[in-house]
């Protein structure tokens, strides 16, 4: 019986790789430093960036492979809220529905400080229930440094990040310390990067650049993995 089991195992085809090449969670800053106009520019900028031609090309560049997308808002230690739960983006119809959902969102919080460590921890737990994908990326946007609760370094020790890559998008106009803080404390993993917007008016363009880059990185990683599996 043992010999038969071994023979069957050897004869069985290898397990297929996941059809999802990237689980991407986007965290949006809604702390007190973000006013109503800036919030609208951030929300609408993300929706428009998702529908940009450059992002569409990155999303749909590999036949049969798709991206899972989730969006949440974060501010104080206990103030996080879902905007878009995990959504498979398999075609332009899926993408349009996701962008429309983001554009229709109503702000969850507006008077709490910047608990960046808690925002990261929420993202880690969100990715923990993501679809089974080849890669996991958390992208967190903000215009200030951590000023409540625990630090990002504590979040990385306490929450199950695993192989999650953490990128950032910072709005630099309000706080000159935000860029060095993200570079030193937030980015995590090989290939992690920081995108910058001078103000919220630049957010849409910065988000489109970032999405194209991180989704494109997942495409490259998938192709390298597939090539290696052939051998």
What report would you give on this structure?
The protein is α/β, with parallel strands linked by helices. A six-stranded mixed sheet has the order 3-2-1-4-5-6, sandwiched between helices. Helix 5 packs parallel to helix 6. The two termini are 31 Å apart.
What are the SSEs and their pairings?
Blueprint: H1 2-11, E1 20-29, H2 36-50, H3 53-59, E2 66-74, E3 80-89, H4 92-103, H5 116-128, E4 136-142, H6 152-158, E5 165-171, H7 178-185, E6 194-197, H8 203-230
Parallel strand pairs: 1-2, 1-4, 4-5, 5-6
Antiparallel strand pairs: 2-3
Shape: globular
Give the helices and strands as they follow along the chain.
HEHHEEHHEHEHEH
State the helix count. 8
**Structural class given helices, strands, pairing?**
alpha/beta
Rg, alpha carbons: 19 Å
Cα separation of the termini:
31 Å
Major beta sheet, specifics?
Answer: 6 strands, mixed
Provide the β-strand percentage band. Answer: 15-25%
Instruction: Tally the beta strands.
Output: 6
The chain-level mean pLDDT equals 89
Helix content: 40-55%
Stretches with pLDDT under 50, minimum 5 residues: 1-17, 220-228
Placed side by side, the strands forming the largest sheet appear as: 3-2-1-4-5-6
